[in-house]
Write a structure and sequence with these properties.
By secondary structure, the chain is of the alpha/beta class. It folds into 2 domains: 289 residues, Rossmann fold (3-Layer(aba) Sandwich); 92 residues, 434 Repressor (Amino-terminal Domain) (Orthogonal Bundle), CATH 1.10.260. 34% of the residues lie in helices and 15% in strands. Strands 1-2-3-5-4-6-7-8-9 form a 9-stranded mixed β-sheet, sandwiched between helices. α1 crosses α12, α2 crosses α3 and α4 packs across α5. The longest helix has 22 residues. It is globular. The N terminus is likely disordered.
């Protein structure tokens, strides 16, 4: 389950190819398991938070700066034309202005004020006078600590602008804690609460941008995201529906290819040793060290969970400015095989239902709720990166909890999509399936749902 974003598909495919050369290929398990999540352990006690530089109050807009001039509808059509959604998207109605924002949010402890950055995408032009619904978009995983979605040419941001903002949705997208201009030193990867609060506070900042610019919003709110962002958008939907429904009128949600069940996701990687899942030598240490920094009780020393020499540097490795997974593998900072990275003690803790690691993974699997608004789960069942079992598990859990309107869409079930989902690499070692082929098609399905609502 390598969690990646559309902008990095070429370099990730190179890593997949490297794995193929070393291993001679690997199998893809499309199991049909929908077993219930393990009983959730109580959340571990959070450690005292580091003291960050002074930041704006949570939810407060600190700065907003236009990124150049609006992208024209023609430019946005051109961006979509290079994707798998090209034949189905239709023409853009609006130009889109990117606004680079800095705003206040909270640290993983839920109280310490910190700064985050992000982008607001504003529909403009005579055909798009508003009022607009507001969408919170959560991006896919990235190793580059410096990455900000407001950067001109960011392919994931342009895809969101081309498929959502160009159709009259105002979009707020956070860079997450620890990225861009965030004052928090680390990224708490797959920590559900801080993903959700970063999103909610980005929406609050976007509403302030709208107020300052006399842009009318219609009061409807939607949430969506891809890969890590799918995990984050589920967490955001949960936060809004359980605590903030009086502030945000959540009209619908679309979660795409996310690792919703972290316990099962890690165990799935261990079931595929020695390789693990595609890219698990990246997401396992990223998630485990990130949650260790939040809870401080998963292990005593890194050497308990990670083999030498990786234990010496793993806690400070991810994210890092200007690196890719391929860089880290070639520099011997991460191995190709998961079996070369994790210890027997890690495997034991991950398979235990009583370990602190299990408790942290379970409490950050945010599908223990019943969505109240229409919700779509979209993914590809041949995905070697985030196993489709996550989508089945989320659907089954939501339905068992009594969710009134939840559905799943497998892009492989649409005949018109199937030729677009094949290329020259076997899917079991092809990170491009997850990184670039599926995202436009799923975002198109999410957009179509949102337009009906």
């Amino acid at each position: 389950m390598t969690l990646i974003d559309c902008g990095n598909c070429r370099r990730w495919t190179a890593v997949a190819t490297l794995a193929a050369v070393l291993l001679g290929g690997c199998g893809n398990d499309d199991s049909d398991s929908t077993a219930a999540l393990p009983p959730e352990a109580p959340p571990p006690a959070a450690a005292p938070a580091p003291v960050p530089p002074a930041s704006a109050a949570p939810g407060t807009l600190a700065a907003a700066t236009d990124v150049g001039t609006p992208l024209s509808a023609a430019q946005l059509d051109a961006a979509v034309a290079g994707t798998t959604a090209a034949a189905f998207a239709g023409a853009a109605r609006c130009d889109v202005q990117f606004v680079d924002i800095t705003y206040g949010t909270v640290a993983p402890d839920g109280t310490t004020p910190v700064q985050a950055s992000g982008v607001v995408m504003i529909p403009t032009g005579a055909a798009c006078p508003g009022p607009f619904p507001l969408v919170a978009y959560s991006r896919g995983t990235d190793l580059d600590k410096a990455r900000a979605l407001a950067t001109p040419g960011d392919s994931e941001a342009q895809l969101v602008a081309g498929l959502l903002a160009s159709q009259g949705f105002m979009v707020a997208a956070t860079d997450y804690l620890g990225y861009g201009r965030s004052t928090w030193p680390d990224h708490p990867y797959l920590h559900a609460n801080s993903e959700a609060t970063a999103n909610v506070d980005a929406m609050r900042a976007a509403r302030e941008v709208a107020r300052q610019r006399s842009i009318q919003l219609n009061g409807k709110v939607f949430v969506t995201g891809y890969s890590q962002g799918g995990h984050a958008s589920v967490a955001t939907q949960k936060l809004i529906s359980t605590s903030l429904s009086s502030e945000f009128a959540l009209a619908g949600a679309g979660h795409m290819s996310g690792p919703y069940d972290l316990v099962g996701t890690v165990r799935e990687a261990l079931d595929r040793l020695p390789l693990g899942e595609l890219g698990s030598t990246y997401y396992v240490p990223f998630a485990v060290t990130g949650l260790q920094k939040v809870y401080r009780n998963l292990y005593t020393t890194p050497g308990e969970f990670f083999k030498s020499p990786y234990d010496e540097t793993v806690e400070g490795l991810l994210p890092t400015a200007g690196v890719s997974l391929q860089d880290l593998i070639l520099q011997n900072k991460l191995p190709v095989l998961l079996d070369s990275l994790v210890t027997d003690r890690f495997v034991e803790a991950a398979r235990s239902d009583t370990s602190s690691l299990h408790g942290a993974l379970a409490v950050n699997s945010p599908i223990d709720t019943a969505p109240k608004s229409p919700t779509l789960l979209c993914a590809g069942s041949r995905d070697p990166v985030v196993d489709y079992r996550n989508t089945r598990q989320a659907l089954a859990t939501f339905q068992a909890a009594g969710a009134p309107s939840v559905s799943a869409f497998d892009v492989e079930d649409e005949p018109a999509y199937q030729p677009l989902l094949r290329d020259d690499l076997p899917v079991a070692i092809n990170s491009g399936y997850h990184a670039s082929l599926v995202p436009p098609l799923c975002l198109l399905q999410v957009r179509n749902l949102f337009l009906t609502l």
